Amino acid sequence: MNKKSICIVVILLLLLTGCDNNKTLLNPDRPVTITIWHYYTSHLQEVFERMISEFNNTRGRELGVIIQPKYQEDIDLLANKIKSSGEKSLGSEPLPNIIFAYTGTVLELDNLNAVVNLEDYFSDKELSEFNKAFIEEGKIGKDNKLKSFPVAKSTEVLFINNVVFSKFVDEANKSGKFDKVSVDDFKTFEGIEKLANVYFEWSGGKSFFGVDATPNFISIGLRQFGNIPVIVEDGKGILNIDKDCLKVLWDFYYKNIVKGRFAEIGRYRADDMKTNDVVAYIGSSAGVKYFPEEITIDANITEPTQLLVMPYPVFEGQKKVSIQQGAGMSVIKSDEAMQLASCEFIKWFTDPKQNVRFSYETGYLPVKKSEFLNEFQEKEMFNLQLSSQSNAANIIKVLEVATKQFDEYELSVDKEYKGSFDFRNAIGMNLSYISQIFREAFLNGISSGKIYEEVETTCLDDKYFEEYYESIKRAFEDIANK
């Protein structure tokens, strides 16, 4: 046998050995246990962990994979725990095999070389079946590889208590005392401001509207005007906020909070609706389960609600942009068998048969393209309609609007960079905090007997916007130079 023939034989033997090794990495006679940290609570936790049990008893049993879920409190606390574990801080637990996390948290782990490039475990054909925007969101780091896999997504929509809203529109329009209002006003932010002003007068001084996530409002609002707030190059952020665009958002949010047209009282706006402090709010489509079934009029009177869902509003003349959000699953580097087992679970969970069922039971949106979902969507919608789930009708309403919104809007997400999570929170929470401070100042001024116009002029002075804008620039520099 000549040297060339010997080389061919050796190569063939190596390839065959490699194939055998891959087959034996997962063995039902020697199952591996995969730990996953998640933040799902209540009904979400029940559905998710039920599906894990299904995997363990079916596909997992065939492969020799056991998934062990561990609830780790809310997403922010989970992010902090992941960070501590990744940095191996004193007293921290070792990282699990799979984490639920937003891409900012995953980026920090990627900088520690702790997360798997999932493109090594999914073929191009498999990835092509997913919504492209979802896959692109999960590509992070200097190599721009897929480190966070989409498993369930949401967007933001308008939640409206149609019982109160319909009564308001009917009576306000019939009175002839106010500008005509209608449900079409919800299409734009300017229309919402008009509704809030009329409702304030009609109701004798009650607030109308609220925003659940101020950081999202700022990011999406700027993008509707074509302004990307932070440009990312080589993993670093470059501040790019257009001051004039930001001023439009400030005027809409700050001034209406201060004057009492909008409200931000409880932790979430669904809480404010339950206490009859808002009639409508922008919130996550996945938060439909928190929409109240009834509102409290006073201490002894409650009234049932009726959900009306509208697409995310747009500033007049600007682009239809809405957010895509939802933590993905990331696989932590370990041995090859553990990594392969983790990816097998992700493939099973994102298969339409499972993923659509999870979505329709929880209010999230499935992650594959619509052509792969249709037959499963019809089945799960039918099952949901037949179910005893109290908010089934509301989930269907939200999913119908959100799915259409995904088709008609540009889906946006901020690209991750060093400090991106902290900066987004800073610009959002600072606006919320300032608005609340001056709302109190406004009320105190009125109650102390000062002239309304004088108090309004003082509290709505544009110098406070200038201070806010400068604080944003300082916050970005501080975070970028940590």
Helices, by number, come to: 19
What best-fitting shape do the alpha-carbon axes yield? globular
| Uncertain stretches | 7-23
Largest sheet, in brief, is: 4 strands, mixed
CA-to-CA gap between the ends?
A: 65 Å
The computed structural class is: alpha/beta
Helix content: 40-55%
Q: What value does the Rg take, in angstroms?
A: 26 Å
Defining traits:
single chain; 482 residues; alpha/beta; four-stranded mixed β-sheet; 19 helices; 16 strands
Explain this structure to me?
- The chain has 482 residues and is an alpha/beta fold.
- It is built from 19 helices and 16 strands.
- A four-stranded mixed beta sheet has the order 2-1-3-15. A four-stranded mixed beta sheet has the order 7-10-6-13.
- Helix 14 (352-362) runs parallel beside helix 15 (374-386) and helix 17 (420-447) runs antiparallel to helix 19.
- It is globular and about 80 Å long.
- The N and C termini lie far apart (65 Å).
- 40% of the residues are buried.
- Residues 7-23 have low confidence and may be disordered.
Quick overview of this protein structure:
The protein is of the alpha/beta class and 482 residues long.
Set out the fold topology:
Layout (H helix, E strand, L loop, with lengths): L2 H23 L6 E7 L3 H16 L1 H5 L1 E7 L3 H12 L11 E4 L1 H9 L12 H5 L3 H6 L1 E2 L4 E2 L9 E6 H14 L13 H15 L5 E3 L2 H11 L5 E4 L2 E4 L3 H16 L10 H6 L5 E5 L9 E5 L2 E4 L2 E4 L10 E3 L4 E4 L4 H15 L1 H11 L11 H13 L5 H17 L1 E3 L7 H28 L4 H8 L3 H18 L2
Parallel strand pairs: 1-2, 1-3, 7-10, 14-16
Antiparallel strand pairs: 3-15, 4-5, 6-10, 6-13, 8-9, 11-12
Helix pairs in contact: 2-14, 10-17, 11-17, 14-15, 17-18, 17-19
